[in-house]
Amino acid sequence: MAEHKFADLKIMTVAKLREIAQGLQNPDLEGYSTMHKDHLLPLLCKVLNIPTHHIAHGAEKTRLKGVIRKVEAKRDEALKAHDYARLAVLRRQIHVLKHKLRNLAEAAPI
User: Fold this and answer.
1) Confidence of residue 97 (pLDDT cuts 50, 70, 90)
2) What is the pTM of this model?
3) How far is the CA of 15 from the CAs of 20, 33, 36, 80, 108, in angstroms?
4) Which residues contact residue 52 at a Cβ distance below 8 angstroms, ignoring those fewer than 6 apart?
């Protein structure tokens, strides 16, 4: 059996994940042939003893939320001052930070 990593499994198609599950013959994977990828992937990781997240996600999430709040306060000030050029820059920063936050949520265990 080949060594698998979470990142490798995450980019595989559901058909490929089902092939791996078929080769494992584990009772925890019962019904794998009808599972969607979002259900099959965590089960495969559990059976293969693959960690599904990074330990520092909680701290990173808290830090990002704090930064978002600060940028939102600056955004509100720019809105009151009618500084639309600065407003556009701050909105873009908020967008990028929230995107990073969503990526952390996707990587968190189910």
Assistant:
1) very high
2) 0.48
3) 9, 9, 10, 53, 23
4) 6, 42, 45, 107, 109, 110
